[in-house]
């Protein structure tokens, strides 16, 4: 995409910083006016991708065990989706201890910080699951080395690994031996969410306070302070989502 021969830099063709945007009607959803604008701004790629991964892609069964690698907005969405679906054990994995508190809010039952143990991550997960591994593992970090660990953390014969995290690396080596034991791996685009049919359901759950979206917001700034938000706040370890108020009182 370019204008006057100059390349336009944008993320996934969204161009959400533009003043005007032309959008295909299939991707436009009129939301309930009861929905707060702050919450509406969070129901995009990020939290919803993780939530959909648990709800639509994995279709987690009640009583299942789940592990989520990476507790950013995507990972916390996967945690909450697992909780909504009735998972009995939800293990969050992150190097940031601050994420433990957030994970509990969204439904996490166990937390692992791999940096605090000499044991391999796979062993730590199996210790929590009586040596079995989990039914579903969500890789939300985009770190290539973690993909094989996610696969091996799932149960032999039935474990499913959902790949959600993205990376600029275009190739990765997967250990096929682990897949021969009946494990499977599945990719996920926007958590399998369908704009017209699924968004109204998520919006209704948000209005009914079934989803903990308020806990995602860690900072709020005015538009005039956007540079500070990008340069300072988003680099802090306790930053999840930043609400940008376009003008005071909005």
UniProtKB/TrEMBL annotation:
Keyword field: Metal-binding, Zinc
A GO-annotated cellular component: cytosol
Residue ranges of every copy of the Alcohol dehydrogenase-like C-terminal domain listed in the record: 73-203
Pfam families with a match to the protein in the record: ADH_zinc_N
GO molecular function, one term: zinc ion binding
InterPro entries, per database record: ADH-like_C, GroES-like_sf, NAD(P)-bd_dom_sf
Cofactor: Zn(2+)
Gene Ontology biological process terms in this record: formaldehyde catabolic process
Oligomer status and interactors: Homodimer.
Protein name: Alcohol dehydrogenase
